[in-house]
TrEMBL record:
Gene Ontology CC: cytoplasm
Family affiliation: Belongs to the short-chain dehydrogenases/reductases (SDR) family.
PROSITE patterns with a match to the protein in the record: ADH_SHORT
Gene: phbB
NCBIfam families: AcAcCoA_reduct, PRK12824.1, PRK12826.1-2
BP-aspect Gene Ontology terms: monocarboxylic acid metabolic process; poly-hydroxybutyrate biosynthetic process
Pfam families named among the record's database cross-references: adh_short_C2
PANTHER family: 3-OXOACYL-(ACYL-CARRIER-PROTEIN) REDUCTASE, 3-OXOACYL-[ACYL-CARRIER-PROTEIN] REDUCTASE FABG
Originating organism: Stappia taiwanensis
Stated name of the protein: Acetoacetyl-CoA reductase
Molecular-function GO terms, alphabetical: acetoacetyl-CoA reductase activity
Length: 241
């Protein structure tokens, strides 16, 4: 096996922790990013992890980007669909661009990234696809109709693709993080964040490493019987799938 893993949005936040976790587990990692080249180059210099810039919402860019990774590093064994954005606002004030940018980046990316790798995984009889959803895709969150819809869609995508590929040695799973200490959560107003933390039974935000550890497990040979699953990692905030 090639041991190549792609982590979208792999240069910052949860994705950076996943990239580092997979590298430590022996994978050759390609971490993608959207536009923050300064951050991505600093990440590359610090970790030695390969970085690639393309927009996960752009089908052609994904096709070309993945082809470049395969040519540089080898066939893709693990795909972690982690890149995501928020464009929060009350639905009655939400414009179409807020809706569609979140749907494209968080949900269309499941198709645009997974479609180019699936044929190779089927031919080789092995593959791992790990999708980062969210607690807010499970429970719905006010101010995030767009994001909750996209992240709930990620769960449906995961279960359906898992069923289709189970006999081909491919597993497809989703992780639903609760609130994790990254730039995305730093953008939440302080007062709102205090209220959020008060509602987390363990009494703190999660750490990106705590999500990365689950991804490393799902990528491993030991996780071969786990597919179509939704892993909830949220400090006890919400339990249902
Ligand atoms: P960050 O905002 O910290 O990092 C986002 C990463 O995604 C960056 O590397 C960014 O690249 C990349 N990215 C964004 N848009 C695109 C795009 N169109 N194409 C390619 N790459 C893109 O996010 P987090 O680490 O907080 O979140 C990671 C994932 O976890 C997301 O899917 C998020 O929805 C989910 N999540 C996060 C939670 C949290 O509490 N933080 C909770 C639940 C789920 P660049 O650096 O170039 O901008």
């Amino acid at each position: 096996m090639s041991n190549v893993a792609i982590v979208t949005g792999g240069t910052r936040g949860i994705g950076a922790a996943i990239s580092k976790g997979l590298k430590a587990a022996g994978y050759t990692v390609a971490a993608t990013y959207a536009g923050n080249t300064e951050k991505a180059e600093a990440f590359r210099a610090e970790t030695g992890i390969h970085v690639y810039k393309w927009d996960v919402a752009d089908p052609q860019a994904c096709h070309d980007g993945i082809a470049q990774v395969v040519s540089d590093l080898g066939a893709v064994e693990v795909l972690v669909n982690n890149a995501g954005i928020t464009r929060d606002g009350w639905f009655h004030k939400m414009d179409y661009e807020q809706w569609s940018s979140v749907i494209r980046t968080n949900l269309d990316s499941m198709f645009t990234m997974s479609r180019p790798v699936i044929d190779g995984m089927r031919e080789r009889g092995h593959g791992r696809i790990i999708n980062i959803s969210s607690i807010n895709g499970q429970k719905g969150q006010l101010g995030q109709v767009n994001y909750s819809a996209a992240k709930a869609g990620v769960i449906g995508f995961t279960k359906a693709l898992a069923a289709e590929t189970a006999r081909k040695g491919i597993t497809v799973n989703a992780i639903c993080p609760g609130y994790i200490d990254t730039d995305m959560v730093a953008a939440v107003p302080e007062k709102v964040l205090e209220g959020i933390i008060a509602g987390i039974p363990v009494g703190r935000l999660g750490q990106a490493d705590e999500i990365a550890a689950a991804v490393v497990y799902l990528a491993s040979a030991q996780a071969a019987f786990m597919t179509g699953a939704v892993m909830t990692i949220n400090g006890g905030q919400y339990y249902a799938n």
